[in-house]
Amino acid sequence: MGTALQATNAPPKGLGVRHLQAVLLFFAMLLLYSMRVNISMAIVDMTDVTKEDHFEWSYSVQSTVLSSFFWGYVLLMLPSGELAKRFGGKVLIIISVSVNSLISLLLPTGAYVGGWKLVCACRVLQGMTQSFLFPSAHHLVSQWIPLEEKGRLSTLIYAGSQLGVALQLISSGFIASAWGWRAIFYTNGVLGALWTAAFVFFGSASPEQSKLMSRQELVYIQTSLGRAGEQKKHKTPWLKIVTCFPFWAAVVAHCGQNWGFFTLMTEMPTYMAKVLGLDLKQNGTLSSLPYLAHYLLSFPMGAMTDLLIRRKWLSVTNTRKLSNSIGLWGPALALIGLSYAPEGNMTIAVVMLTLSVGVNAGHFTGYLLVLSDLAPHFSSSLMAISNFFANIVSIIAPLVCGVIIQDESDPAEWRKVFFLAAGIYFCTNLCFVLFTTAKKQSWNDPEESEPQIKE
């Protein structure tokens, strides 16, 4: 009967409120990742010795500033999954964007008042509130996006993060050249405030709570997600989660992804400035190319995995492994190629960097979806745990770069950084390929006798 019901569950014609929610979440991802990466470009101008009011920060201090965001990010990561389940995604994502926007407006003044230590404190607070982002987004996607549209709309939402990085890197160089590095933060703060106002009025924690929903669209979403009737929450099976080996294989892949991705995200502007000798405008434009490639490639990667599963050419598990292998082993090969690029050859360096970040889009349909495949009911908790460990790695990666690189202009020292990232990409994805699965776990559907919480 359920199959017959789903067959007659035709989507309403035209765009609906679910599409509005997806667009709002897309811009939330875009803005928060813009605010996450803005310091990477700003710090190049802040420490430019040719400027009279530059900051005398050593490279190790700069690495500390760049990593400080992730200190706060991991601090609230574990409870953020449960908070998203209890309070819904809307409240938490509003807190995340609004607090990050306010701090962006205050950070330039803080840099002059309290130096790098106060900048670190601001970044820690931004990281703490951004820890709500992915668990909240996962929760909102599970509430709003019908199964028939999950591939397309989920890719739209999550790819906003990469477009945010790309646009921030492109714009920062021009903004800083025209109005100074402070304007980078002011621009982010104002745009974030505008988004917050829009989401307060038009966003909703679920279709059932939205005042804009039509009855037809509400029934379509509820039927697609099997949510007709009273909604219940099951108690999180923590023991089952921590003893689930395929889950930990996905966590390992997540850690490898974060090492490589955030090494490049935080260090690429410095590499382009010191090794390739690019000015701020060129730096921002060329640093953005890898993330534009990442954004654009995420859509065909999503379509490819849907096709492989729909045509039954590969099982869901093998499709996830193939996609993740493209996303992690592809960048590993590109970073090795970058390490052997002729010194001073900007074209080859930019091409290799673009490839390394571009094909990394495979992870969107790799371990990220495995975290949902294993236990859809507890996906926010799985994501919170995985993000916690992966972002400890995000703290360590730029600090290790600061230890390895004593001379920022020496290509040989950067080569060590790239080889290390390539090795970590390879080993962590090998663990994923050998030990994970996309098979739904039995503990995703607790027995009726287990404690349940009415929503």
Quaternary = single chain
Element pattern in H and E:
HHHHHHHHHEHHHHHHHHE
Biggest beta-sheet profile: 2 strands, antiparallel
Rg = 22 Å
Helical amount among residues, as a percent range?
A: over 70%
- Global structural class: mainly alpha
Give start-end ranges of low-pLDDT stretches: 1-8, 448-455
Strand order of the largest sheet: 1-2
What sort of overall outline do the alpha carbons produce when their principal axes are compared? globular
Distance between the termini: 26 Å
What percent of residues are in strands? under 5%
Mean pLDDT: 84
- State the helix count: 17
User: Would you report the number of β strands?
Assistant: 2
Task: Give a description of the structure.
The protein has 455 residues and is mainly α. The protein contains 17 helices and two strands. Helix 2 (17-46) packs parallel to helix 7, helix 3 runs antiparallel to helix 5 (89-130) and helix 4 runs antiparallel to helix 16 (379-404). A two-stranded antiparallel ribbon has the order 1-2. It is globular.
